[in-house]
Amino acid sequence: MRLVLFLLLALPVCALADQESDFRIAREALRVGNASRLDKVAESLRETPLEPYVTYYQLRMHWGVKATPAIKAFLARTDESPVVDQFRGEWLKYLGERESWDEFAEEYPHLVNTDNELTCYALQLRQQSDAVGALAEARKLWFNSEEMPDSCTPLFIEAIKQGIISETDIWQRMRLALESNNTSLARELIKKLPKAEVFPAAELSVAARNPRHYLEKTKFENAGMGRRMVALFALQRLARQSPQIAYTRWEHMANYFSEDEQRYFFGWQGYAGAQAHDERALLWYSVAGDAALNPKQLAWRTRAALRANNWHEVWESISAMSPQQQSEGVWRYWKGRALMALGRPVEAEALFTDLSREYNFYGQLASEELGGAPGAGMGSVHYQPSDTEIETIQAMPAIQRTLLLYRMDMRTEAAKEWAWATRNFSDRQLLVAAEVARRNEMYDRSINAADRTVQLHDFNLRYPAPYRESMQENLHKHGLEEAWVYGLMRQESRFATKAKSDAGAAGLMQIMPDTARWVARQIGMKGYRKGLIHQLDVNIQLGTYYMKTVSHQFDDNPVLASAAYNAGPTRARQWRGTQPMEGAIYVETIPFDETRDYVKKVMSNTMYYSKLFGQTSQSLKQRLGTIEAQNAKNQKSYRDER
Question: Which segments constitute the Lytic transglycosylase superhelical linker domain (predicted)?
């Protein structure tokens, strides 16, 4: 399994094991602050691909006020490893905090990956020679719904003092903070308001904790701007729970708000209603009138119009988006569909033609709108790497580090190394790198590289099918379509058997622990324990049974079953409409961003796998089908196992 890796490093198995053991010792020494132990083990890793990490660990344990020769030497390395740029960023923050501006100015231009903290330190440096320009740039950072780092604070204070950040700007940022539920930032911003506008910060906590109670108990007659803003925040929170309750409460208090505030309320009420699939959403959006809608609100105005089959509103909503938002594939496709419905086929076909060149969900649908056959555009492999090219990529230290880190299950670090190593690769180099990763069973990295090619493509690398032999028994037992199962696995784990999500889903098929235990009981698996979930055969057995279960609940509809696999059967049922609905519209109006993206990718993957497996393929539109309207039968309650 690891033969290529061993050949790549030209080391015996025992030497690799020693490297891994020594590297883990080095990491632990850094964690506990044992410099002597770190220095000792570092010698054994000095001539290995992992040396940059160990040197980085040593430097982190010996910070100084001035840059030592060792620090300067490490920073002088070029194009070697992301850990060098990571250290450079940390060193610059150290210098900025101490206002060591000469050294900061010397090193900052070499930084690749910056962040807001470093940007504000750089602006502090610029402030010394160009105060107005620096503060004007700081103002651009001000409009952020998240807390900004301490390095930005003196810039903001001075910009407010100079009037570069105005009182209106303070109110705007407070509104942004409240729209993002960031009450801690809003409380800080209260302190920056004019004294006449200051309101009790405690109201924010009450409004966030129990918005209905706050709105019922608070008097809004002659309320100041701050209290009205908090009320609108509470109404937004209440609308997420129930658009109807929020609207009812609003009717009792609307007269206390300005016309602009009333339009603002209806913009968010429409947004909440659209996400809740409330049929009044478009009406609420219309009452918002010419209120400025943000990208999220415009997207959901469009989705509400899709569910209502109001193609003029679809076109109008997309046309109101910024050029950048309109350029997204999703909105090009639906604008094309709207133009077709409105009798403007020439304009629609122009959008579909451009979009059909993209290898994704909406690219596939656009191709079908133009009459393309399922899987059209995949073609054959355009480029096959030579042995010499494979050896060249394998010899790169960053690639070697990726392989070693992956072997040690340090997948986050491995992914960073891989991204760094391949960031400037041509299509040919990307395909060579993808093949190297595939041979070393790093399927997620292989997909990552193959997906990024622009002109030369290898769809066998983009859509690998490992473990096919291990899958067959369970596929046949449960009557599952192989292409759909692989489409789901590619999206779930990228075929990484040790993958684990933040929510706790584990293994190749990303099974939640509770689901795994339930399935184990259903199939009579003896001696099941949590650790078994990462075993390939066990994970496949559990995952395919669960796929069969959710598929059966939804009459083998892959759209609903995919949504249920990700978000649970209860939600997948609730997202049906009151009328039959085109499958693509059902998918586009899934309220959860993660699940909506997930289902699109699973269905798109399924199409490609069907083609690669040589199976008779329906079009994507046929696979998406029509989603039956809600009725007593399909709303029957099942236990939501996921």
Answer: 393-450
